[in-house]
DNA sequence: CTGAAAGCGCTTACAG
DNA sequence: CTGAAAGCGCTTACAG
C-alpha cells in the first residue's frame, strides 16, 4: 500500500505539505504542488479514508435508518433510498444501510462513531428514535416529520397533495370520496406521520363537501398488500356503498383495490374512480386500467435530505431545513365522472 | 467522548487489557474482567469503530456495487440489496451502497480502503468491473457469474428455472413457447449474464420440442418497462402468432405484456399463457390475472452472498463458494391450456 | 495474566 | 510557503 509518506519522500516534501495539496487546505507553492501531484500520479496514490476519518474525526459516512427495509419496501421508499445514496456520493459521502427497529441497537450503532450523520425514514409523530438520535448528538435529518417542527426535515406535502387529489375528483363531479390508508402494527396514534397527516388532510379537504351532502368521513385502513387492497374494496362496497371515488394513500394496496373492486363487479372508473397518492408513475402504468397517481417527489426528496444533512455537517447552513414538496398529478384512466345513479 | 483510556483508568488496568476483554482476544483473570466490564457499563463506553478499523486494518464495511441502482431497480434487485444488508449487519458488518457505473471511479473507491470486501451485482459474462475488482485486491463475491467459474459467486439457477417453466407450460399442452428477455444498452453479447443464460436455457429446454414441431426459436428482447412489455405483446402478435405461451425473464415488462396482449384482443390465459420467471410473488399478485411466477430466491441469495464474502474475509472457508439456487414456481392464473385452434 | 510501547495513516495547530 | 510533531483511539506483537 502506498501511503502519504511515500508520496512525500518522492516529492521531497513533508507529509503535511502533501496533505495540504490533497485537501486544498493551505496554499502551496505552484512548483511544490506540481511535484507532489506528479508523485501522486506516478505512485497512483489514494488517500486512506479510514486514517483520514480518525485524524479528522469525520468519517463522511451517513447512515440511513429505516425500520421496514427488511419487509418489502415499496417503490417510493426505494426511490428515497437510492436518491439519498446518490446525493451523498456526489458530495463525497457514503451511505450505509441500517435496517434497525430497535432503539437500543440504534443507540449502540450511533455511539460507535462510524457515521457523521443519519437520515431517518418512516418517522412517527411521536418517535422515540428521534429522541435517541438527539441524545446521541449525531446530526440528522428526517424524511418525514414529528410533531416537533424545529428538527430538520424533508417531507411530502400531504396537505397539498390530498387537497389536489380531492380537487381533481371533485372536478369530475364526485361528492362522496373515501380515503384508504395503511394499517400498521403501530399503536393507534403512533402510526407513521404520513398516515396521520394524510387522514387529517382528507378530513380537511372534504369537510365542506361532507357538510353539504351530510355524510360522515369514509376512512379505511388496510395492510399495504394486495390482500389489503382487496379488503379495502370489500369494506368500501359493504360499508360505504355510496362512495364514488377513492383517494388511496397506500401504495402496496393499489393493485389489490383495483382487482378487488372489479371482482365485486365494480368497473374502474365507471363505477368507482381511484387516485393513488404518493406512489410512482411506474406503479400506475402497471395496473389495468392505468391508475391516476399523485407521483411522490421521492427522487428529489432523498437527495434533498442528503444535501440538508451534509449542509448541516459542513456548517453550510444557518437554519434547520424544512422542505415540503407535494406530489405531482399524473392522469391515468382510473378517474372519470361518477355513475349517474349515484350522483346526488 | 469516553475512550478506552477512560475505561482503563477506572478499572485500574492498561488499555491493552481493556482491548482484550472487549475483543475476547486473550485470557483475562475473571476479577480483572469483572472490573473492566463494570467500568464499561458505568461509563457507557462504546468502542470507536474507526480507530479499531485503522489499528486492525479491517473496517467491517462491505460495498454493494450495482450499476442500475439509480434507475428504477426492480423488486427482485431490492430484495437482494436488503437481504445482503441484513445478513451483513447480523455478522457485525455494514453495507455501503455504491451506485457506480464507471470502472475508474470504482477503482478509486476501492483503493480508498473504506471497505473490506465488495458485492457485485448485474454481472456480465465478460465484466471489466470484475477485472478491476481483482486488480484492487479487495475480496469480493458476485451476485451473478462471469464466464470464469473460479470466482466466488451466488446466482439464480436459470437453467433449472427455465427448464421448469417450460416444463410447466408443456404439461398444459403448449408446444410453441416464446421467450421474452430484457434489452439493455449493453453491446450484444455483453448483456448481464442472467439474460444470456436465460436465453441459452430456453434454447436448451425447447430444443427437442422445436425440432418436433419444426419451428425456430422465438426470442424477443424488450426494455424492462411497461412500454417494453407492450412492445413484446405486439411483436409476439405480429411475428410469432402461433406462440401460445411465453416465458418472461423481464420483471419490469410483466405488467405491460399482459396489458398489451389484452389490448390486442388476446385474453390471458385463454389465448396466451404467461409465466414470469425470476420475479417476486408480490408482483404476480398485483397483475390481473394474477401471474404465474417463478419467484426468485433473492431474499436468500443476498444473505448468502454476504455470508460467503464474510466467510472469505474471516478465513472461515476453504474454497470459493459457488451457490446456484433455482426460482420457485408459484402458480397464478396466467397459465392454462393452449387454445384449441392453435394446438397442433 | 498484565502492561509498556509501537504503530495504523492520516490531520492540524504551531513554529519558523 | 513548509516542516516537525502531536494526536486521533484503537490493536497487537513483545516482554515479563
TrEMBL record, chains A, B:
It comes from Nonomuraea diastatica. It comes from the Bacteria. Gene3D superfamilies: 3.40.50.2300, lambda repressor-like DNA-binding domains. SMART domains: HTH_LACI. Keywords: DNA-binding, Repressor, Transcription, Transcription regulation. It holds the Pfam family Peripla_BP_3. The lineage of its organism: Bacteria, Bacillati, Actinomycetota, Actinomycetes, Streptosporangiales. This is LacI family transcriptional regulator. Residues 2-56 form the HTH lacI-type domain.
